[in-house]
Specification:
The chain has a domain of 73 residues: SH3 type barrels (Roll). It contains one helix and six strands, in the order H-E-E-E-E-E-E. It has a six-stranded antiparallel sheet. Strand 1 and strand 2 form a beta hairpin. It is found in: Cell membrane. It is a single-pass membrane protein. Keywords: Cell membrane, Membrane, Protein transport, Translocation, Transmembrane, Transmembrane helix, Transport.
């Protein structure tokens, strides 16, 4: 009886959650569309240009396109906010921050406290 209980516990605590994560990852990779910002499993940030059977074409810089397998997409990134910054040349530049779609929302310095002694 204890052996059967141990197998059941392992199934619900280890095997089932891992299988669920794998299914979610595969679904995310299959639902990628052109124009989506992604991060590969190796940490490369790019924009999806085209989606083919098991391949995606990623633009890593303007005019630089590479072909990857869908399984190499680690995360889909979503824009958080746009802000205008001074680039030192006299023209303001718009910067868009991105974060993983599954990451909690992060907002500035709301939680920080400055203590001066």
């Amino acid at each position: 009886m204890p052996l059967i209980l141990l197998v059941v516990v392992f199934y619900f605590l280890l095997i089932r959650p891992q299988r669920k994560r794998q299914q979610e990852q595969a679904q995310m990779q299959n639902n990628v569309t052109p124009g989506t910002r992604v991060m590969t499993t190796t940490g490369l940030f790019a924009t999806v240009i085209a989606v083919e059977d098991d391949d995606v074409v990623l633009e890593i810089a303007p005019g630089v396109e590479t072909r990857w397998v869908k399984a190499s997409i680690g995360r889909v990134l979503v824009p958080v906010e746009e802000e205008t910054v001074d680039n030192g040349v006299g023209e303001p530049e718009t910067v868009t921050d991105v974060q993983p779609a599954d990451a909690p929302e992060i907002r500035g310095d709301e939680g920080s406290t400055d203590k001066k002694s």
